[in-house]
Amino acid sequence: MLTLSRLQTELDDRAATPAPAQPSFWKEFRRRMRYLFCCGANNNRLEPDFTDLNEVYVPKMYPDWLPLEQNQRYQNNKQRLYQAAYENICPADHIVPERDKRGELVQIGSGRYGTVFLARYKPTGDYVAVKRFKRNKSSEIHIRREAAFLDILQETKLCPKFYGILEEKRQSTSKFANLSIVMELVRLKENTKQCFNLKSFVQTQFARGGLTTKDWFNFNIELAQGLMEVHERGICILNLKDENIMVSRDSEGAIHPRLVDLGGVVLLDDDNPIVPPQTFTERKLNIFNKKRPSLAPELFKSSKPTAQIDIFSLGCIFEDLGKREMMCDLTELALWCTTSDPSLRPTLAVIVKELGELAVKL
Ligand SMILES: Nc1ncnc2c1ncn2[C@@H]1O[C@H](COP(=O)(O)OP(=O)(O)OP(=O)(O)O)[C@@H](O)[C@H]1O
To answer: Does 160 contact ligand 1 (Cβ within 6 A)?
Structure first.
């Protein structure tokens, strides 16, 4: 909602900005935010035409530094990307929503773009998570794009299995869009329906009981290794934060990270740099920066989507964990990862090595 003070600030800004050829602040702001968090390189496309993503995505899948064998796999992804976006449909009668005693849908979590519900996948009886998207926040291309990336990243240990796109006819007055994403339910333990993201996990005594510092180090090693796998596929998460990392515990009590919410992903080293609008004043940048402290500072100047951006966000996760669990070594590593100069941040390989060495000492 445009509050009076925000409106006043905008008007002040407009007055201070020379009129000719300057795009409106809010128009440019929305365009940039869409670029950052929704459509990535295809921010200008309003039509659900996915072929452009194919074209944009595939050349990026040939980074020189990758072994030939991996490049070959990316070539095969071209067809899959399209299929995931348009052909990987989960038939509506395969999904049986779970309801509580009052007959309401069981909600697992929610965010700015969607709400995630619990359901059963009829053919196998598996529990699944169905992410419904808010109609006013997500375009069709946004949803299809998220699904396509989930399809590619489900190969990694970090991301949940993708069951397909669910199409349901809803009234135009409905809060939710017609398309939803069906994916594996990432739950705390095999035999429960409870799900915890890292943020809620650390605050819930019964879920986190009995953990040692070593467990946390191993968890972080897995997280960094998982991120490496994501980067190897030419993808930058951009939106890495504790709410998007789910925690599961195995039969021995060890914790493992899984990544959900690929709504913000962009292509690594995309030629389109992410730049804040010209009219973004220093003050506004600071306000936005404070609201999203896990975003790397270079994003607020002008930056290509790089691995270092995710490493900064990973550092913010380490910082929170280090402080909360009183792991000084982790806090120190966090400081290194969140260096404002991206070229000084450690690579993921170095992070894994450092964490491994620290874990051995325990
Ligand atoms: N596969 C899943 N299994 C279990 N819980 C999930 C799953 N996917 C999402 N969640 C839960 O639902 C919450 C909201 O999902 P998600 O982050 O995808 O929504 P969003 O609207 O895109 O969020 P954001 O505001 O961060 O963009 C997550 O924080 C997580 O706790």
So the answer is: yes
